[in-house]
Amino acid sequence: MAVRQDNPELLALRDRSVDVVTRADMMETFGALKRTVAVSGTAGKTTTTAMLAIIADAAGWRPSFIVGSNILGFGPGMAWTDSDWLIVEADESDASFLRFGAEAVIVNNIAPDHLDFWGSGEALEAGFDAFVTQAAGPKVVNVDDHGVAALQARIGKPPGLVTFGFAANADYRIEDYSAQGLTSKFRLRCGNTFVAEVALAVPGTHNAANAGAALVMAIQLGIAPSLAAQALGRFHGTARRFEQRGSARGVTFVDDYAHLPIKARAAVNAALLGGWSRVIAVFQPHRYSRTRALWRDFADAFTGVDLLVVTAIYAAGEPPMEGVSGRLVIDSVSAAHPEQRICYCESRTELVELLEQELRPGDLCLAMSAGDLTTLPDEMMSRPWARDET
After folding, report:
1. Of 18, 199, 268, 339, which is least packed with CB atoms within 10 Å of its CB?
2. Nearest-CA neighbor of 281 among 312, 254, 261, 257?
3. Within 10 Å of residue 121's Cβ, how many Cβ atoms?
4. Phi, psi at residue 328, to the nearest 5°?
5. In the chain, where are the structural domains located?
6. Is 89 tagged catalytic?
7. Which fold is adopted by the domain 243-387?
8. pTM here?
């Protein structure tokens, strides 16, 4: 829960007998008013929702939408219009995605997370099963993902279910992917039929998959593939999703919301395709409970980077847990990849001093966090180091 029950503002509202509703309650109310398309998954749902909103807007739908971040070059992450349609990022963290009454759904991937709420991986999987099967309309799922493949094995192929992905057995296949710097492109086919060519202003195979999900859903909803592909070319990302924040001394700084193994791996893979001389990755673990549950799963999340720097945990309001620190992530990576160059920085001062010594022209500095590491690029670019070209 984002706000603790002992939050002073929440307590003050209750003392004044002000009705307080949860986000889930609000989303259920919104969903009842519109024909809802809900985008879910452990990773990629913010980007996919934003992509689909831009496509629907280009098609003249003027949809309402709720996205968990600002859409770069498009505006805030929420709009309420008189359209019949609502496109929404569907959050599984508290099972609220089951309350939207969504007509159409997307599932990008399923990986362990929010197990403090669900209690087990099996319960989380059952939640996704219900999310898909209760939708009366199109169900677009990523067959490349092991968790989604397992979902399909459990529920079969109910009416309206369509698969997409790089896999040869996908109903809609992503092919001929290529990347250059911060851009990428691919072709989409259905069987032997060419559907569309997409040029993206964002990098990474994960973004090609996100775009594939949005494009396939748009097609299922009756939007012309060529129009949808053209709209995707105008997508420039969302805040904190591989967001280029600037450069200094020949170093490019990128901020990414990656805080789970699946997200970190996607961000790193996108960075490695970008053509930089080196990739310096800085990772801030998020929450003690999440780190305790997932630290082993980070073993292969940073493979290929030239230097991995792990920081202290961003608590997000949680109390410390004995024996749980960012060093657990280092232990996991070191055990799997003993050749990996890794550093641990307990304080921001220590981190900044290390980066000033380490970074050189041609490098990418990739900051990954759901916490306050998002300010690192601006801090680095504002320091005297950034103006010292010697």
Report:
1. 339
2. 254
3. 14
4. -60, -40
5. 8-232, 243-387
6. yes
7. Protein-Tyrosine Phosphatase; Chain A (3.90.190)
8. 0.83
Type of residue numbered 244: Q
Domain 8-232 in CATH 3.30.70.920: no
Residues sharing a CB contact under 8 Å with residue 106, sequence separation 6 or more, in sequence order: 37, 38, 39, 40, 41, 45, 48, 52, 140, 141, 213, 214, 217
**Amino acid (one-letter) located at 161:** L
How confident is the model over 7-56, as pLDDT tens digits?
888 889 888 888 888 777 777 788 788 999 999 988 889 999 999 999 99
- CA 45, CA 31: separation in Å to the nearest integer? 17
- Which one is catalytic: 46, 163, 291, 311? 46
Cα 250 to Cα 137, 230, 278, 334, 362, distances in angstroms? 49, 33, 12, 30, 6
For the record, the structure tokens of 80 come out as 């309420």
Task: Write down the catalytic residue from 47, 89, 311, 374.
Answer: 89
pLDDT in tens, 108-163: 999 887 777 788 889 989 999 999 999 999 999 999 999 999 999 999 999 999 99
Query: How far apart are the C-alpha atoms of 25 and 104, rounded to whole Å?
Result: 20
Active site residue 46: yes
